[in-house]
Amino acid sequence: MPGLNVYMVGVVVADIERAAEFYRRVRVEVPDEVAGKRHVEVGMGDLTFFLTTPDGNAAWDPRRADPTGEGYRMILEFYLEEPDALDAKVAELAGLGYTVSTEPYWVTPDLRFALVDDPDGNRVLLSAYKDGAKPDAPISL
User: Fold this and answer.
1) Which of 43, 63, 83 corresponds to the end of one domain?
2) Residue 116 sits in which domain range?
3) CA-to-CA distance for 34 and 31, rounded, in angstroms?
4) Of 6, 30, 61, 106, which sits most exposed with the smallest number of CB within 10 A?
């Protein structure tokens, strides 16, 4: 039996309009009409990304509770084509008041990372490879 593929990735958000603005700035094509909605989906190739409010989430998980404690359990990564684009995106988001938890840095000689928090404190990883050369095989750190 073949392995499973990720079908959807969702983020539970307190304010869907505020979250939609953040993810649009990261270049996710969130629809313009999100006001008053409790769930919005965005097709991204074979994957669907969604934003949902706690009320929207309760429709399929009525026992969900907010996590407690520090840190995070999941991270979203968005790829930018070039390190300069990553640096510019981090500067843009910081200028708009979003929290940059880790400034851009080189993880390897070819891979650059930065970490930014969305409006709900979800950690978002921005990455870029030198010369846009994304490897065919998974990286090992």
Assistant:
1) 63
2) 74-141
3) 7
4) 6
